[in-house]
Amino acid sequence: MIAFCIRRALWMVLTVWAVFTVSFFLMRAVPGGPFDSERALEPEIERNLKRKYNLDAPLYQQYFQTLGQVVRGDLGHCMRIGDYPVATVIREGLPISAALGSVALSFALVLGLLAGVTSAVSRGSAADVGLRLVATVGIALPNFVIAGLCILVFVFQFGWFPAAGWGSPIQVVLPAFCLGAPYAAYVARITRTSMLDVLSQDFIRTAKAKGASPGRVTFIHALRGALLPVASFLGPAVAGILTGSLVVEQIFAVPGLGSYFVQAAILRDYTLAMGVVMLYTVLLYTMNWLVDMSYAALDPRVELN
Amino acid sequence: MARALFPWVVLAALLFSAVFSTLGGGLPPADFTFCNESEVKSLDPAIVTGSPENRMINALFEGLTRLHPQTLEPIPGVAERWDLSDDGVVYTFYLRDTARWSDGTLVTADDFRYSLRRFLGPRTAAEYAYQAWYIKNGRKYNRGGSGVEPGDPVEVELNLPPDAVNSLRGELLHGTFVRLENQTGEPLPDDERDSTDRVFVVEIDGQENRFVSKDDADAGATPHDGLRWCRQVLFDFRDVGVEAVDDRTLRITLESPTPFFLSLMGFYPLYPVNQTCVETHGSPAWTYPENLVGNGPFTMQLRRIRDRIRLAKSETYWNRDEVKLNVIDALAVDSITTAMNLYMTGNVDWITEAPPTALRELIHAEPPRDDINPSTWLSSYYYLLNTTKAPLDDLRVRQALHMAVNREEIATKILAAGEQPALSLVPPGIEGYVPQLALPQDPDEARRLLAEAGFPEGKGFPRIDILYNTHEAHQSIAELIRKQWQRELGISVRTRNEEWGTYLSSQRQARYDVCRKGWVGDYADPNTFLDMFVTGGEQNNTGWGDPRYDELIAAAARESDPDKRMAIFREAEQILMRDLPILPLYYYVSKNLVKPHVRGFYNNVQDFHPLWSIWVDDSGAPNEFMQGARGR
Known about the structure:
The complex is a heterodimer.
Chain A (H helix, E strand, L loop, with lengths): L1 H28 L13 H10 L6 H13 L14 H36 L4 H15 L2 H15 L12 H30 L2 H8 L4 H29 L3 H6 L6 H9 L3 H29 L7
Helix pairs in contact in A: 1-12, 4-5, 4-7, 4-9, 5-7, 6-7, 7-9, 8-9, 9-12, 11-12
Chain B lengths: L1 H22 L8 E4 L15 H10 L4 E3 L6 E3 L2 E6 L5 E6 L13 H12 L17 H5 L10 E5 L14 E10 L17 E6 L2 E7 L13 E4 L1 E4 L6 E5 L2 E5 L7 H4 L10 H7 L16 E7 L3 E6 L13 E5 L4 H9 L5 E2 L4 H8 L12 E10 L9 H10 L2 H7 L6 E2 L21 H10 L11 E6 L2 H18 L3 E6 L1 H9 L5 E7 L6 H4 L16 H12 L3 H18 L2 E8 L3 E2 L3 E2 L15 E2 L16
Parallel strand pairs in B: 1-16, 1-17, 9-10, 20-21, 20-22
Antiparallel strand pairs in B: 2-3, 4-5, 5-13, 6-7, 6-11, 7-8, 8-9, 12-13, 14-15, 15-16, 17-24, 18-22, 18-23, 19-23, 25-26
């Protein structure tokens, strides 16, 4: 277990370094720079700007300097978006994205698991077909369509929820629903498939034979085993959902992290783009790591190796 | 069972406390809320260029003059009055005794001197610095070490310790610039003049000193024999035309008469900043809500990144009795559809732009709406033609392309807000200036010209690209023009889109045939449009140039008689519209949606709406914004 964690930690350092290197050079290979604007800069002014952000040194020097800063925990200053350090932008945005994401995720899990288990237990029934249909629609419909429909119905027709913004609990409901809906659908489908798989196994028959109640068989014996594929889906899903979504955050004007992933790249905000990419890498890696560890907890046959 | 549930209950509680902690406990509603487009890049007046920043800085700071919210005439701001010398180059501003910073101290002439120096200082890297080049020697100072010539008075800024607050200036030595040389003492060859190793020889008190610019972090090392480190050597600011005569009197000397200078002093990059605040906190921390000291009608209560800036009426503002709003929320909303949703549900009182899809419907609604009134403003939408590439280097080809465009069709089919087709670069609406029009649409003449240029019915004409930055509206226009050219001229045209950064660099390196472009005037004067197209101008990426045109633009800068000046501009625009390095297409209109209870909000040619003039009136009286609208 400890050896496993140490090995994983070493790999994480390597992965983050590789991602840093690739994105550093990719960012700079794209035409344009952080100081492009419609009003062209006088050459002298541009030179000063570049000096200020250390963009006038040869590329390899910039690389080692930036790497050195990142190792010391300094992500630098945003070049285009906000006059804040990257760390502040992440500190303000991440909790909001994470809060929205956790609500969306809890909703996705509760709804997805319930629907999946119901489908599997009553396989072939009308409920099963209905739930599968809803799940397929949920996966097929992009976020912005769900969001558009929700706004039309719940904001303009019924007036139950505010159109956008962040600050009161009622403003969390619609974005969380729209963010969580596709995940709920995936979870439902995965749960159903793996439940069916587990329900046909020998140990379930044994459990039934020794007289365990149907509820106990389904939720304790079967569900635990069926959670394995769900857990491996959740790893990357959690990393994605916690760092926010461009579409949902834009539509509902939620001041999370999501839009930086796209905006920073479009505006050539080198430092911010590097910051969010590395944050995502670390989160994704950590989540996958946790998933691997959860396998051992969920299935006694798995050994961490 | 209860024991099994316990961890889940704890988890759920943790989750919800996490969510509630980020919600910030809900703010009391503001008196006036509007969508301020995207998150502001900074609140430092010297370094920003966008319109969301413009709105915020105009609320937090105030210049020597203000622009009247309706007419845009410069009216007294921090300066209560001013004199102009007979030759039109020396302005003397008299500051009012009641102008105060939000920390209670007086706004002095020295504050303006400090702010203008900071704005022009090369280390500030102000993108808008050229707006202060009208001040005598402003450009020289702004260009730093590259701007000094032998014999010039210079200031040498010495290094500070690397951990000093980044907005402090080093100790200054004053002297006379002698020459540039390299580190071994030989004269510098021309191609090394921009090298960072160059040595500035400066005579101080009769002694020659040799200075080399060094970053503060590296200035701890001992320099070679006979050299001294410094931050920079630049033109002496004491010889720049900004002088604090006394506490309340500021004298600004210009390079040449500049009729729009008073308007420029009401333009936000030239606003004063508080020296103590800037130098205590350093940049950019001085702009944070807890630190910022301004002199405008409002102060900043809080700023949440990508959420909102909350403004409160300033208790120290000299004209506070005229400011009617107490609390304003400026929301950062990226998506215009979301802004529209917020507006339609009554959460905001003003949005700066309605989505194009909704616009047509809103404008033609029956009965007419009481909250939309598009009006033209100082901005042009046009295509650049790359005159360095065949066949666009042939005037007849450019004329043919120009005459084959049906601008009416663009205006009626694509543009929803009543944008006017354009045949000139300078839009209408500048007092005293009549835009000079290019020849009107004429497909027959276009075909004849194209044949004369050697491409009868478009035969042998190479395929040309229309480049635009990725955006639905630009795409529809490019597609329509492509069809018009193919239909009228028989030539083959392709459209190509690039996202913003790439598009800008293609444009700058002239890797295009035809390229979409828009320009918004910085001030109400033809100069802001016409000076772009001087030979080799930064915005003139067409390769076109005309010596007579350059002469005219230079002559206009020297001319103090307004009528003669406008005549010069007219001649210049005639040249531009004759040679057609650009194809004007249409003039933009403003697309504000403003609730009927908002008063003191006027349509004007710069789409500029200072918050101090706005108030909320629920009496149902007609508001200023809707004056002259359809159905009234």
